[in-house]
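Predict the 3D structure for this chain.
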Amino acid sequence: MEKINYIETAIKEIKSPEFAHTKQVLRERNVMKNICNDPEKSVKDALDSAVVIEDFLPSPAELVRKTAKEKKTISIDSYCIKFFKAEAEKHNTKYQTMMNEVLSQYAKHYATV
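Done. Predicted structure below.
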């Protein structure tokens, strides 16, 4: 009877989340051992499996856009102002800058058509 209890207890432990975590730790240790045994091969393997991605970041010149601006007084619907103010606050920027960007993109799009 004692052997059966021992086996049942062992099965419960193997199925427990703690044991799963232990297995993961052991796997990670084996990976680290492999890396430590042959670091040069590990680096080569990592470089071979690396994926080159296209550069999607704007150039520094594109980040600092200084274009001529004119001050104009216009009437804009209240809900539009509320929308841009809320979005600007979420993104820690100025709502007028966001509105200007939308207008700029619209103008660029339709100026080339």
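The chain has a mean pLDDT of 76.
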